[in-house]
Design goal:
6-stranded parallel sheet; 3-stranded parallel sheet; 12 helices; 13 strands; globular
Length: about 300
């Protein structure tokens, strides 16, 4: 969901260094970044990593833009000696050089981060090309990502647009509630009864949970995030929870149905015109409803 902000920063022509979780490096392999600093969640270790990068990079004035709202992220850059712009949340006003007050009213995360990016560029007296984020995400895939996705399909005996890709897991809890829809087994069997291949490619840590959630789905080997995002483009349809998979599919401009039951679609849903959102906060969709919508999305008659 940060891609519009990244595109806006790259549009300034200035070197951009991404500081993010290690998994993001593969996802951003095709972007013309000036560097990537992995953030591992310990503010002292992350501060040391940022300072080390500064020592090794070309000398010059470094400016920071903090998309996370956490106090720890602000501390990392403050003690690394980088003045930062960011939202005031979590008591960070005195730590940030350019604190920004969040706009009033509900706002999608894509819009919120892009608003903050525009604020930072304005304070830095740099041009702001995009007044609003684009209506679609435009992730750039590396050639290796597309090659790996194609190889995974070939090894599984699947063809492009010839399968439905499901992602039945969602890690963690949201306010104490499970974020995964319980109907993937029923949905998978209903699709298979209509001759539609159903596949999934969960990460290694989620393979057992995915197998339990959809025992009859064809399980592909785990892929890197870039290759997985490329795989979503090759599917006839992606059906997933409100999770990272939904946002990867949106970034890849894949056709998807995202299922909601414990989160708000207007705040955390996929930023995509290709996505159909089913369910709502505190109300999961039923299995027959998801099946009917999936068949309609694929232009398959219900009785086929």
């Amino acid at each position: 969901m940060s891609l519009p902000s990244l595109d806006t920063l790259l549009g300034t022509g200035l070197p951009v260094v991404a500081c993010a979780r290690p998994w993001a490096q593969d996802l951003l392999a095709a972007y013309p970044l000036a560097g990537f600093v992995p953030m591992r969640g310990s503010w002292r270790a992350d501060r040391a990593a940022v300072r080390q990068h500064l020592k090794q990079s070309t000398p010059g004035r470094a400016l920071g833009l903090l998309l996370p709202d956490s106090l720890s992220s602000a501390l990392v850059f403050r003690f690394a000696g980088i003045p930062c712009a960011g939202y005031r949340d979590d008591g960070r006003s005195l730590i940030l050089r350019w604190p920004c007050r969040k706009p009033a009213g509900p706002m999608h995360a894509v819009q919120s981060w892009h608003y903050l990016t525009r604020h930072a560029l304005t304070r830095w007296q740099l041009p702001v090309v995009d007044a609003e984020p684009a209506e679609e995400l435009h992730w750039q895939a590396a050639a290796a990502h597309e090659l790996q996705a194609g190889q995974a399909l070939a090894q599984a005996g699947l063809k492009q647009d010839g399968f439905v890709l499901i992602a039945p897991t969602a890690t963690g809890l949201h306010k104490g509630r499970v974020k995964a829809w319980a109907g993937f087994d029923s949905l998978t069997q209903s699709l298979q009864a209509r001759g539609i291949a159903v596949a999934m490619a969960p990460p290694a840590a989620e393979q057992q949970a995915a197998q339990a959630a959809a025992p009859t789905a064809q399980q592909l080997p785990p892929l890197g995030l870039g290759a997985f995002a490329a795989l979503t483009r090759l599917a006839r349809l992606v059906i997933c929870n409100d999770s990272g998979v939904s946002h990867l599919a949106a970034a890849a401009h894949a056709r998807q149905i995202t299922l909601f039951g414990v989160t708000d679609p207007s705040r955390t849903g996929p930023w995509s015109n290709q996505a159909l959102r089913l369910g709502r906060l505190h109300a999961w969709p039923s299995a027959p409803e998801v099946l009917a919508q999936a068949l309609e999305y694929m232009n398959i008659p219900p009785a086929a």
